[in-house]
Amino acid sequence: MAVRDDEIARLIHYAKGMGVRVIIYSKSKSGSEAEWTLDGSMIQVYAGPRKSKTQIILDLIHELGHHVWFIHEKNRQPDMKFDEAITRENLVEEDPDKPTPKHLRKKIWDVELAGTAYWDIIVKDTNVKIPAWKIEAAKEFDMWMYQMYYENGHFPKGKLRNDHYREVQNKHRPT
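Given the sequence above, the corresponding structure tokens read:
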């Protein structure tokens, strides 16, 4: 088994120890990269043919960050405002003319930000060997994506997204 396969297995085992079932699908039904259920029961990661094992690991860390936040800060009690925001966001995908109100987008931003506070703990607990700069770059890029969503009501796409991704990678990559 390769190093990244071992890390994926450890992250899945870590999740299982917290009562979370992890399923890795080959294709996304919703278009997202990964999802954590609001009741904390499951993490779904979508690993298409172009997705690297490193990206799968980063997706697992991201979603586990939500779950560790859910345990430590919410005492495993669902956050109804976050639930409302996510439910509303899912409705927007069906009807783009009704954007999610900004106060609900702020709630999503706050939860995403809170989850990143646990990434370093998860990395240390599971002995992930991905270079620290890649983890920091992924964290910064995720936060930028959600901040843009909060401010504009949609995630950046195309050239803006790709240019910012390269910028963040170059900023964190050791020279």
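Residues 38 and 78 are 7 Å apart (CA to CA). Try to locate this feature in the token string yourself.
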